[in-house]
Amino acid sequence: MTSLINARKGVGDLLDSKYKILSIDGGGIKGLYSAVILERFEQRYGPIHEHFNLICGTSTGGIIALALAAGIPASDIVKFYTDKGPDIFPYKNRFVRKFHSLKSVLFLSKYTSDELKSAISEVFQEKRVGDCLTHVLIPAVNITTGKPYVFKSDYIPKYTRDSERLLSEIALATSAAPTYFPIVQLDTKEGGQQFVDGGLFANNPSLYGVQEFLANKVHIGCDDYRLLSISSLHEGTTVPITKKLRRPFWGWKDELISLMIDSQSVATHFHVKYLIDSCGGEYVRIPSAQLTKQEQKKIELDMAHPSSIQILLDKGKDMSAEWINKSEVMQFFDKTSKEATA
Questions:
Q1: Average pLDDT over the chain, rounded to whole?
Q2: Which residues contact 110 (CB under 8 A, 6 or more apart)?
Q3: 197, 254, 262, 302: which one is catalytic?
Q4: Which of 20, 115, 129, 332 has a C-alpha 20 to 30 A away from that of 298?
Q5: What is the pLDDT of residues 51-77, one digit of tens each?
Q6: Cβ atoms 67, 24 nearer than 8 A
Q7: Between helices 206-215 and 254-279, what is the axis angle to 10°?
Q8: Alpha carbon distance 299, 96 (integer Å)
Q9: Which of 23, 59, 258, 320 does the annotation list as catalytic?
Q10: pLDDT of the residue at 137
């Protein structure tokens, strides 16, 4: 019964005839930037979940997406990052960070998952996918099968897998970045299987949100869709031209992960733009803010130094101020909420 009730949530409850999708990029502690933008939107327009049929998120964006869908205020998510971030990513001194980066190359993941698991459990407690107030879509990678694995709400008859799954389990699975955090083991219908960060294939999950609408358009009951995509803060990583072309893994260090997730997010942006131009739909992408050279030194996926936290807060506030009154954003928050149909 729970899954059947949940199957109706968010579908057709919005007065707008267009299916509204929110997508949130991955990026570790840099997710604070995205959370601040959403906090400001929520202060202006009300609870985020009331305005979207589907919320997608990968890695840190997956944690944010699950929290919003569960009705947790965006302000609490910002507090989660500012309060818990320094405990989850404790290595602030550059020398110590380099040592632990070397450890992650040779021996163990850079961090244990103890602090992350404790913080996530505190946020989600015993909430399950079936308890969400709107639909969710959260990418991860099943390394046991070697395939992408997308956790999603059981909102149409063919989806019967994830309704009883704990949100805390999904949050850990989608954010288990290789070399940073341990692999996550979950029980599935196929037995115990292991998962890592969905950012390996979908750091920007926008394309999967659009695909979800197109694949299930008949069941969804909307004619068209609108997609609002929120970037995390990009580090602006570039690699100077060098004569040393045979660069070893240690030579790449964290630059490799940064380049991978940022370039993947940008590539997905262009894929979605092409899809919109070819097949219709509406698309708004709130980009990463620009960083100065000095700011770039303080922004990394796992850098939770107080000065880094402050940059993320400031950049999120500035970007939200730039976008909050734009007509293309306001169309997502036109107060045709689920409460309006009650």
A1: 86
A2: 91, 100, 101, 103, 104, 179, 180, 181, 302
A3: 197
A4: 115
A5: 999 999 999 999 999 999 999 999 999
A6: no
A7: 40
A8: 16
A9: 59
A10: 98
Which has the higher per-residue pLDDT, 322 or 241?
322
Compute CA distances 29 → 5, 160, 169, 294, 303, whole Å: 35, 33, 19, 18, 7
One-letter amino acid of 109: S
Beta-strand pair 54-57/18-24: parallel
| pLDDT for residue 16 is more than 90 | no
pLDDT for 203 beyond 50:
yes
Active site residue 334: no
Neighbours of 201 (CB within 10 A): 16
Q: Are the beta carbons of 18 and 282 closer than 8 angstroms?
A: yes
pLDDT at position 216: 93
In contact, 24 and 64? CB cutoff 8 Å? yes
Give CA–CA dist 218/186, Å, rounded: 32
Convert 55-88 into a string of H (helix), E (strand) and C (coil): EEECCHHHHHHHHHHCCCCHHHHHHHHHHHHHHH
Question: Roughly how many angstroms between the first and final C-alpha of the chain, as a whole number?
Answer: 21
For residues 59 and 262, the answer to whether their CB atoms sit within 8 Å is no
In the annotation, is 288 catalytic?
A: no
- Both tokens of 138, joined, read 């959260």
Cα 211 from Cα 56, distance rounded (Å) = 12
**Closest Cα to residue 153, out of 339, 21, 342?**
21
Q: Is 194 left (phi over 0), alpha (psi -120 to 50) or beta?
A: beta
Which of 49, 60, 110 shows the shortest CA–CA distance to 84? Answer: 60
> Exposed/middle/buried for 253, CB within 10 Å: 0-12, 13-18, 19+?
middle
Beta carbons within 8 Å of 326's beta carbon, 6+ residues apart: none
CA angle (77, 314, 139) in 5-degree steps: 40
